[in-house]
Amino acid sequence: MTSTKARPTDPRGQLASFASLFSPDLSAEAPLTPALRRKERRYLFRETALQKLRRIGLAAREAFANDGVIGWLSAADMLARDGAIGASVLPDPANARSTPDGLCGFAEKLTPARLMEGYACGLFPSGNIGIVKWWAPSMRALAAPAAVSVSAEAQAALASGALTVAFDRDFDACLLQDCDDIPLPEELRWAFARLSDAGHAHSFEARNREGELVGGGFGVAVGSVFIVEGVFGDGLARQAALARLAERLKAGGFDMIDAKRWYDDLGAFGFKKVPREDYNERLARACVRAANWRAPASQPSLRRAA
């Protein structure tokens, strides 16, 4: 991970913290009104030209390394087709391209309703270069919450209090991190923020003893599946956040954690490679029942990674 930056300074929060030093009985800061929240987000989510250039450069390097020139040509062909005929209907995951793996088409509407419809069909949005697109990779990475395992070091960090994990404490801060080593584009920051406001997206946040955000991620609850949309931080913080997330999901009756794409290192943490067709069948069954994100976790003993 290249960056684990904390949320930019919030002047309102700074003033409240300073005032509380002299007024111990001062009540906690009131939640922002919707209007003030939108104003704050416009400041937080704004992407400068330099930041945008950096994001596109990182994404282009990764895309070229994975798919080469053929991937670029295939993507250009699909995007030209969608631009000509429009993309008002969700694409069929069965028609996803093999190069780039899982590319399905434009994601023109990023409303909460449209996004949840896409997730329920086996799609997810991503778009670090150009327009946001729908994806459905040929292999997904799934784990039952009870099967998740972490290293002894991560267990020790949690047991000692060196790392603590909270949920939905500062969702917007997670959107500002370099999730999976690449910053989110402004359009997706707003889309996930709206999903959070609607109660569908949730964050899992690892903090050190000083309370600094050092790792974690966020994802979307779809029926009894939790789809991890992004993670950030060093390996230890990621594992600690994943461990507490798994406990939370198990307590709430979730059946699966979906890491979206398969990477070989996920196997050490209890994830298994699942073909797209099998994944879609499991997803359809999981969407019949809504799990309970709010269920408190009992925090049982953690499994150790092999």
Question: What's the arrangement of secondary structure elements?
Answer:
Elements: H1 11-22, H2 34-45, H3 49-85, E1 103-106, H4 112-120, E2 124-126, E3 133-135, E4 139-143, E5 149-150, H5 152-160, E6 164-167, H6 171-175, H7 186-197, E7 201-207, E8 213-222, E9 225-233, H8 235-251, E10 256-258, E11 272-275, H9 276-286, E12 303-304
Parallel strand pairs: 5-12, 9-10
Antiparallel strand pairs: 1-3, 2-3, 4-10, 4-11, 6-7, 7-8, 8-9
Task: Explain what the structure shows.
41% of the residues lie in helices and 18% in strands. The radius of gyration is 20 Å and the shape is globular. The protein folds into two domains: 89 residues, Leucyl/phenylalanyl-tRNA-protein transferase, N-terminal domain (Alpha-Beta Plaits), CATH 3.30.70.3550; 164 residues, Leucyl/phenylalanyl-tRNA-protein transferase, C-terminal domain (Aminopeptidase, 3-Layer(aba) Sandwich). β7 and β8 form a beta hairpin. The protein starts with 10 loop residues before the first helix and ends with a strand. The N terminus is likely disordered. The strands form three sheets. Strands 6-7-8-9-10-4-11 form a seven-stranded mixed sheet, with helices on both faces. It has a three-stranded antiparallel sheet with strand order 1-3-2. α5 crosses α8. It has nine helices and twelve strands.
